[in-house]
User: Fold this.
Amino acid sequence: MPPALSAEQIRDANTRYHDVAAGHYDSKWGIDFGEMGRAQVTAKARKALGREPTRWGRSLEIGSGTGYFTLNLLAAGLIGEATCSDISPGMLSALSANAGRLGLEVTTRPADAERLPFADESFDLVLGHAVLHHIPDLPRAFGEFERVLAPGGTILFAGEPSRYGDRLANVPKRFAGALAPIWRRALGAAAAVPDPDERPVAELERLVDVHAFAPGELAWAARAAGLTDVRVSGEELVANWFGWTNRTLEATADPEQIPWVWRQYAYRGYLALQELDRRLLEGRLPPAIFYNLMITARKRERPADPPRRRAS
Ligand SMILES: C[S@@+](CC[C@H](N)C(=O)[O-])C[C@H]1O[C@@H](n2cnc3c(N)ncnc32)[C@H](O)[C@@H]1O
Assistant:
Protein backbone atom coordinates (compact mmCIF):
# COMPACT_ATOMS: atom_id res chain seq x y z
CA MET A 1 0.00 0.00 0.00
CA PRO A 2 1.40 3.45 -0.88
CA PRO A 3 1.77 5.73 2.14
CA ALA A 4 -0.94 8.33 2.83
CA LEU A 5 0.24 11.61 1.31
CA SER A 6 -0.99 15.18 1.54
CA ALA A 7 -2.59 16.76 -1.54
CA GLU A 8 0.55 18.83 -2.04
CA GLN A 9 2.76 15.72 -1.98
CA ILE A 10 0.50 13.99 -4.52
CA ARG A 11 0.72 16.97 -6.87
CA ASP A 12 4.49 17.10 -6.43
CA ALA A 13 4.84 13.35 -7.12
CA ASN A 14 2.70 13.74 -10.25
CA THR A 15 4.77 16.64 -11.54
CA ARG A 16 8.11 14.90 -10.97
CA TYR A 17 6.98 11.47 -12.21
CA HIS A 18 5.36 12.81 -15.38
CA ASP A 19 8.28 15.17 -16.12
CA VAL A 20 10.51 12.08 -16.31
CA ALA A 21 7.90 9.88 -18.03
CA ALA A 22 7.37 12.48 -20.79
CA GLY A 23 10.54 11.40 -22.62
CA HIS A 24 9.30 7.88 -23.43
CA TYR A 25 5.56 8.24 -22.80
CA ASP A 26 4.37 7.88 -26.42
CA SER A 27 6.42 4.77 -27.11
CA LYS A 28 5.59 3.17 -23.75
CA TRP A 29 1.83 3.54 -24.30
CA GLY A 30 1.81 3.13 -28.09
CA ILE A 31 0.34 6.61 -28.58
CA ASP A 32 -0.46 7.26 -32.19
CA PHE A 33 -0.98 10.60 -33.93
CA GLY A 34 -1.88 9.21 -37.32
CA GLU A 35 -5.07 7.74 -38.73
CA MET A 36 -5.23 5.15 -35.96
CA GLY A 37 -4.97 7.76 -33.16
CA ARG A 38 -7.63 9.94 -34.77
CA ALA A 39 -9.97 6.95 -35.12
CA GLN A 40 -9.39 5.85 -31.50
CA VAL A 41 -10.02 9.28 -30.03
CA THR A 42 -13.05 9.99 -32.21
CA ALA A 43 -14.50 6.60 -31.25
CA LYS A 44 -13.99 7.38 -27.55
CA ALA A 45 -15.71 10.77 -27.93
CA ARG A 46 -18.61 9.11 -29.78
CA LYS A 47 -18.93 6.43 -27.12
CA ALA A 48 -18.76 8.90 -24.24
CA LEU A 49 -21.36 11.23 -25.77
CA GLY A 50 -23.61 8.42 -27.01
CA ARG A 51 -23.85 10.21 -30.39
CA GLU A 52 -21.68 11.44 -33.25
CA PRO A 53 -19.43 14.28 -31.96
CA THR A 54 -19.90 17.70 -33.57
CA ARG A 55 -17.21 20.39 -33.83
CA TRP A 56 -16.39 22.41 -30.71
CA GLY A 57 -15.02 25.95 -30.89
CA ARG A 58 -12.57 26.49 -28.00
CA SER A 59 -11.31 23.49 -26.04
CA LEU A 60 -9.29 23.12 -22.86
CA GLU A 61 -7.63 19.81 -22.04
CA ILE A 62 -6.75 19.02 -18.42
CA GLY A 63 -3.70 16.80 -17.85
CA SER A 64 -3.12 16.70 -21.60
CA GLY A 65 0.18 14.80 -21.37
CA THR A 66 1.86 14.59 -24.78
CA GLY A 67 -1.38 15.51 -26.58
CA TYR A 68 -3.06 12.16 -27.34
CA PHE A 69 -6.60 13.54 -27.14
CA THR A 70 -6.32 17.16 -28.23
CA LEU A 71 -3.88 16.69 -31.12
CA ASN A 72 -5.92 13.83 -32.54
CA LEU A 73 -9.22 15.73 -32.14
CA LEU A 74 -7.63 18.79 -33.79
CA ALA A 75 -6.35 16.69 -36.67
CA ALA A 76 -9.81 15.11 -37.01
CA GLY A 77 -11.31 18.62 -37.34
CA LEU A 78 -13.42 18.29 -34.20
CA ILE A 79 -11.85 21.26 -32.37
CA GLY A 80 -11.40 24.83 -33.57
CA GLU A 81 -8.97 26.39 -31.07
CA ALA A 82 -7.08 24.18 -28.61
CA THR A 83 -5.53 24.93 -25.23
CA CYS A 84 -3.70 22.18 -23.34
CA SER A 85 -2.84 22.30 -19.65
CA ASP A 86 -0.89 19.92 -17.45
CA ILE A 87 0.76 19.99 -14.04
CA SER A 88 3.94 18.64 -15.68
CA PRO A 89 5.95 21.14 -17.77
CA GLY A 90 7.88 18.17 -19.23
CA MET A 91 4.67 16.72 -20.68
CA LEU A 92 3.76 20.09 -22.21
CA SER A 93 7.19 20.34 -23.88
CA ALA A 94 6.68 16.90 -25.40
CA LEU A 95 3.19 17.97 -26.53
CA SER A 96 4.54 21.13 -28.22
CA ALA A 97 7.16 19.03 -30.03
CA ASN A 98 4.43 16.62 -31.23
CA ALA A 99 2.21 19.52 -32.33
CA GLY A 100 5.15 21.06 -34.25
CA ARG A 101 5.84 17.78 -36.06
CA LEU A 102 2.17 17.45 -36.98
CA GLY A 103 1.83 21.10 -38.04
CA LEU A 104 -0.95 21.74 -35.49
CA GLU A 105 -1.44 24.93 -33.51
CA VAL A 106 -2.09 24.62 -29.80
CA THR A 107 -1.64 26.87 -26.75
CA THR A 108 -0.02 25.20 -23.72
CA ARG A 109 -0.19 26.33 -20.10
CA PRO A 110 1.14 24.54 -16.99
CA ALA A 111 -1.76 24.27 -14.53
CA ASP A 112 -3.10 22.27 -11.63
CA ALA A 113 -6.63 21.04 -12.38
CA GLU A 114 -7.82 22.43 -9.04
CA ARG A 115 -6.66 25.99 -9.82
CA LEU A 116 -7.14 26.78 -13.48
CA PRO A 117 -5.51 30.03 -14.67
CA PHE A 118 -8.32 30.79 -17.14
CA ALA A 119 -11.19 33.26 -17.12
CA ASP A 120 -14.76 32.19 -16.40
CA GLU A 121 -16.76 30.79 -19.32
CA SER A 122 -13.83 30.74 -21.77
CA PHE A 123 -14.18 27.25 -23.33
CA ASP A 124 -16.87 25.26 -25.17
CA LEU A 125 -15.30 21.91 -24.28
CA VAL A 126 -13.30 20.90 -21.19
CA LEU A 127 -11.83 17.45 -21.71
CA GLY A 128 -9.30 14.98 -20.39
CA HIS A 129 -8.05 11.41 -20.70
CA ALA A 130 -6.64 9.35 -17.81
CA VAL A 131 -6.24 12.38 -15.55
CA LEU A 132 -9.09 12.53 -12.99
CA HIS A 133 -7.64 9.63 -10.98
CA HIS A 134 -4.51 11.73 -10.26
CA ILE A 135 -6.36 14.74 -8.80
CA PRO A 136 -6.51 14.94 -4.99
CA ASP A 137 -9.67 17.09 -4.62
CA LEU A 138 -12.03 16.02 -7.38
CA PRO A 139 -15.05 18.17 -6.38
CA ARG A 140 -12.84 21.23 -6.41
CA ALA A 141 -11.49 20.33 -9.87
CA PHE A 142 -15.03 19.81 -11.22
CA GLY A 143 -15.92 23.23 -9.77
CA GLU A 144 -13.09 24.68 -11.87
CA PHE A 145 -14.19 22.80 -15.01
CA GLU A 146 -17.69 24.26 -14.58
CA ARG A 147 -16.35 27.76 -13.97
CA VAL A 148 -14.23 27.93 -17.14
CA LEU A 149 -16.94 26.29 -19.30
CA ALA A 150 -19.23 28.55 -21.34
CA PRO A 151 -22.98 28.08 -20.87
CA GLY A 152 -24.14 25.20 -23.05
CA GLY A 153 -20.55 23.82 -23.08
CA THR A 154 -19.56 20.17 -22.67
CA ILE A 155 -17.20 18.28 -20.40
CA LEU A 156 -15.80 14.97 -21.61
CA PHE A 157 -13.39 12.75 -19.66
CA ALA A 158 -12.38 9.22 -20.65
CA GLY A 159 -9.87 6.57 -19.63
CA GLU A 160 -10.57 6.72 -15.89
CA PRO A 161 -9.99 3.47 -13.95
CA SER A 162 -13.13 1.93 -12.51
CA ARG A 163 -12.87 0.46 -9.03
CA TYR A 164 -14.32 -2.98 -9.90
CA GLY A 165 -12.62 -3.05 -13.29
CA ASP A 166 -9.33 -2.40 -11.55
CA ARG A 167 -9.93 -5.27 -9.11
CA LEU A 168 -10.93 -7.62 -11.92
CA ALA A 169 -7.71 -6.71 -13.77
CA ASN A 170 -5.73 -8.16 -10.85
CA VAL A 171 -6.77 -11.66 -11.97
CA PRO A 172 -4.92 -11.56 -15.35
CA LYS A 173 -2.00 -9.75 -13.69
CA ARG A 174 -1.57 -12.54 -11.12
CA PHE A 175 -2.09 -15.23 -13.74
CA ALA A 176 0.58 -13.64 -15.97
CA GLY A 177 2.98 -13.24 -13.04
CA ALA A 178 2.79 -16.99 -12.36
CA LEU A 179 3.08 -17.88 -16.05
CA ALA A 180 6.02 -15.54 -16.77
CA PRO A 181 8.97 -18.00 -16.35
CA ILE A 182 7.36 -20.55 -18.73
CA TRP A 183 6.44 -17.78 -21.19
CA ARG A 184 10.03 -16.44 -21.23
CA ARG A 185 11.42 -19.91 -21.78
CA ALA A 186 9.01 -20.52 -24.67
CA LEU A 187 10.06 -17.25 -26.32
CA GLY A 188 13.75 -17.67 -25.51
CA ALA A 189 13.83 -14.29 -23.73
CA ALA A 190 16.02 -13.58 -20.69
CA ALA A 191 14.53 -12.14 -17.50
CA ALA A 192 14.52 -8.34 -17.20
CA VAL A 193 17.33 -6.88 -15.12
CA PRO A 194 16.05 -3.99 -12.96
CA ASP A 195 17.82 -0.70 -13.77
CA PRO A 196 18.89 0.95 -10.46
CA ASP A 197 18.48 4.39 -12.12
CA GLU A 198 14.79 3.61 -12.67
CA ARG A 199 14.11 2.86 -9.00
CA PRO A 200 13.29 6.44 -7.89
CA VAL A 201 10.87 6.79 -10.82
CA ALA A 202 9.24 3.44 -10.04
CA GLU A 203 8.79 4.60 -6.44
CA LEU A 204 7.15 7.82 -7.59
CA GLU A 205 4.84 5.84 -9.88
CA ARG A 206 3.33 4.14 -6.82
CA LEU A 207 2.26 7.54 -5.50
CA VAL A 208 0.59 9.21 -8.46
CA ASP A 209 -2.72 7.32 -8.74
CA VAL A 210 -5.12 8.40 -6.02
CA HIS A 211 -8.53 7.13 -7.15
CA ALA A 212 -10.34 4.33 -8.91
CA PHE A 213 -14.00 5.25 -9.34
CA ALA A 214 -17.46 3.80 -9.02
CA PRO A 215 -19.55 5.31 -11.85
CA GLY A 216 -21.82 7.04 -9.30
CA GLU A 217 -18.87 8.91 -7.76
CA LEU A 218 -17.93 10.51 -11.06
CA ALA A 219 -21.57 11.40 -11.74
CA TRP A 220 -21.88 12.89 -8.28
CA ALA A 221 -18.80 15.11 -8.73
CA ALA A 222 -20.23 16.50 -11.98
CA ARG A 223 -23.71 17.12 -10.54
CA ALA A 224 -22.32 18.68 -7.35
CA ALA A 225 -20.50 21.20 -9.58
CA GLY A 226 -23.87 22.15 -11.12
CA LEU A 227 -23.42 20.27 -14.42
CA THR A 228 -26.38 18.62 -16.10
CA ASP A 229 -27.13 15.79 -18.60
CA VAL A 230 -24.50 13.65 -16.86
CA ARG A 231 -23.68 10.39 -18.64
CA VAL A 232 -21.22 7.75 -17.38
CA SER A 233 -20.28 4.76 -19.51
CA GLY A 234 -17.66 1.99 -19.43
CA GLU A 235 -15.26 0.63 -22.01
CA GLU A 236 -12.80 -2.25 -22.36
CA LEU A 237 -13.24 -5.52 -20.53
CA VAL A 238 -11.85 -8.52 -22.39
CA ALA A 239 -9.36 -6.30 -24.26
CA ASN A 240 -8.13 -5.04 -20.94
CA TRP A 241 -7.60 -8.50 -19.46
CA PHE A 242 -5.69 -9.48 -22.58
CA GLY A 243 -3.66 -6.25 -22.42
CA TRP A 244 -2.75 -6.65 -18.73
CA THR A 245 -1.77 -10.27 -19.22
CA ASN A 246 0.62 -9.31 -22.02
CA ARG A 247 2.02 -6.19 -20.35
CA THR A 248 2.69 -8.15 -17.14
CA LEU A 249 4.48 -10.90 -19.07
CA GLU A 250 6.49 -8.40 -21.13
CA ALA A 251 7.57 -6.45 -18.04
CA THR A 252 9.39 -9.56 -16.78
CA ALA A 253 11.57 -9.97 -19.90
CA ASP A 254 14.50 -8.11 -21.42
CA PRO A 255 12.62 -5.84 -23.90
CA GLU A 256 15.29 -6.38 -26.58
CA GLN A 257 14.57 -10.12 -26.57
CA ILE A 258 10.79 -10.01 -27.00
CA PRO A 259 10.18 -11.18 -30.59
CA TRP A 260 8.49 -8.87 -33.08
CA VAL A 261 5.90 -11.57 -33.78
CA TRP A 262 4.84 -11.55 -30.14
CA ARG A 263 4.51 -7.75 -30.14
CA GLN A 264 2.35 -7.92 -33.27
CA TYR A 265 0.17 -10.61 -31.70
CA ALA A 266 -0.24 -8.53 -28.52
CA TYR A 267 -1.04 -5.32 -30.40
CA ARG A 268 -3.40 -6.78 -33.01
CA GLY A 269 -5.09 -9.03 -30.47
CA TYR A 270 -5.75 -6.03 -28.26
CA LEU A 271 -7.36 -4.08 -31.13
CA ALA A 272 -9.51 -7.07 -32.11
CA LEU A 273 -10.72 -7.55 -28.54
CA GLN A 274 -11.45 -3.82 -28.21
CA GLU A 275 -13.79 -4.26 -31.17
CA LEU A 276 -15.39 -7.29 -29.52
CA ASP A 277 -15.95 -5.28 -26.32
CA ARG A 278 -17.47 -2.43 -28.31
CA ARG A 279 -19.80 -4.58 -30.40
CA LEU A 280 -20.91 -7.14 -27.85
CA LEU A 281 -20.33 -6.02 -24.29
CA GLU A 282 -20.25 -2.25 -23.77
CA GLY A 283 -23.92 -1.63 -24.50
CA ARG A 284 -25.09 -4.66 -22.49
CA LEU A 285 -23.10 -4.82 -19.23
CA PRO A 286 -23.03 -2.28 -16.36
CA PRO A 287 -20.31 0.43 -16.66
CA ALA A 288 -18.89 -0.52 -13.24
CA ILE A 289 -17.28 -3.76 -14.42
CA PHE A 290 -15.37 -2.23 -17.35
CA TYR A 291 -11.79 -1.12 -16.79
CA ASN A 292 -12.23 2.43 -18.07
CA LEU A 293 -14.98 4.90 -17.26
CA MET A 294 -16.01 7.89 -19.34
CA ILE A 295 -18.14 10.83 -18.31
CA THR A 296 -19.82 13.62 -20.24
CA ALA A 297 -21.97 16.46 -18.92
CA ARG A 298 -23.17 19.88 -19.96
CA LYS A 299 -23.32 23.33 -18.46
CA ARG A 300 -26.82 24.79 -18.61
CA GLU A 301 -27.53 27.57 -21.10
CA ARG A 302 -28.07 30.93 -19.47
CA PRO A 303 -31.81 31.56 -19.16
CA ALA A 304 -32.99 33.85 -21.96
CA ASP A 305 -33.68 37.45 -20.91
CA PRO A 306 -37.39 38.05 -20.31
CA PRO A 307 -38.99 39.87 -23.24
CA ARG A 308 -38.75 43.66 -22.80
CA ARG A 309 -42.07 45.45 -22.32
CA ARG A 310 -42.73 47.90 -25.09
CA ALA A 311 -43.03 51.49 -23.96
CA SER A 312 -46.53 52.69 -24.71
C1 LIG B 1 -1.81 9.17 -17.28
S1 LIG B 1 -1.26 10.72 -17.88
C2 LIG B 1 -2.40 10.99 -19.23
C3 LIG B 1 -1.86 11.93 -20.23
C4 LIG B 1 -2.75 12.14 -21.45
N1 LIG B 1 -4.00 12.72 -21.08
C5 LIG B 1 -2.95 10.84 -22.17
O1 LIG B 1 -4.04 10.28 -22.14
O2 LIG B 1 -1.99 10.35 -22.79
C6 LIG B 1 -1.88 11.83 -16.64
C7 LIG B 1 -1.54 13.29 -16.90
O3 LIG B 1 -2.17 14.08 -15.89
C8 LIG B 1 -1.27 15.05 -15.42
N2 LIG B 1 -1.67 15.45 -14.04
C9 LIG B 1 -1.51 14.76 -12.89
N3 LIG B 1 -2.02 15.44 -11.86
C10 LIG B 1 -2.52 16.60 -12.35
C11 LIG B 1 -3.17 17.73 -11.77
N4 LIG B 1 -3.42 17.80 -10.46
N5 LIG B 1 -3.53 18.75 -12.59
C12 LIG B 1 -3.27 18.70 -13.93
N6 LIG B 1 -2.65 17.65 -14.52
C13 LIG B 1 -2.29 16.61 -13.76
C14 LIG B 1 0.08 14.37 -15.48
O4 LIG B 1 1.16 15.26 -15.48
C15 LIG B 1 -0.05 13.58 -16.78
O5 LIG B 1 0.38 14.30 -17.91
